[in-house]
Design goal:
Helices cover 39% and strands 19% of the residues. By secondary structure, it is an alpha/beta fold.
């Protein structure tokens, strides 16, 4: 039986300080942007980061020692996964080498919008540069169209192409 560890709840001030101590004050600043209006059908810029969600994702990956992540959609969470996997790689690289894994400390991003994929790439590269991160993790950026289909007679969506990977954490942050 696998015991999944859930991160404890923290207050907003604690979470803001966490990001500031990590050198990510710009995420805290971005989180204070006003969200788009509810009745807007399309959004012309990425959503502001939700600090509590990002903190919980970071802690979840660390506490459960996830080594390979597949993320459907991209954005602030992609940056957080990058940083969490980087921290785990620093701590456990030698131990993970003994496991039968093809892609330890790798992040697979699957996106259906090329503009968001480019924003994510630039954000991660800029953050790695600003934090002086030289030993980066492997990030596989993948683009795929999404189509509507039926699953058990229910309308659903599916990506046309999926990356070949064996993740131990899957995050759905897209259609």
């Amino acid at each position: 039986m696998i015991n999944i560890k859930i991160p404890p709840n923290k207050n907003e001030k604690y979470i803001e300080n966490f990001f500031v101590k990590k050198g990510l004050k710009f995420i805290v600043d971005q989180s204070r942007r006003k969200p788009p209006k509810v009745n807007e059908m399309t959004v012309s810029s990425p959503y502001a980061p939700e600090l509590k969600d990002l903190y919980r994702l970071y802690q979840f990956v660390l506490l459960n020692k996830r080594t390979t992540i597949l993320e459907f959609g991209s954005g602030w969470s992609t940056l957080i996964f990058n940083l969490a996997l980087k921290e785990l790689k620093k701590k456990f690289f030698e131990k993970v080498k003994k496991l039968r894994r093809n892609n330890p400390f790798e992040l697979f991003v699957l996106e259906n919008d090329k503009s968001y994929l480019n924003i994510t790439k630039k954000r991660i590269n800029a953050t790695n540069k600003n934090l002086n991160i030289k030993d980066t993790i492997n990030i596989s950026y993948n683009y795929s169209e999404v189509e509507m289909t039926l699953f058990n007679n229910l309308i659903s969506t599916q990506y046309k192409k999926l990356p070949l990977c064996n993740p131990d954490f899957i995050y759905l942050d897209g259609p």
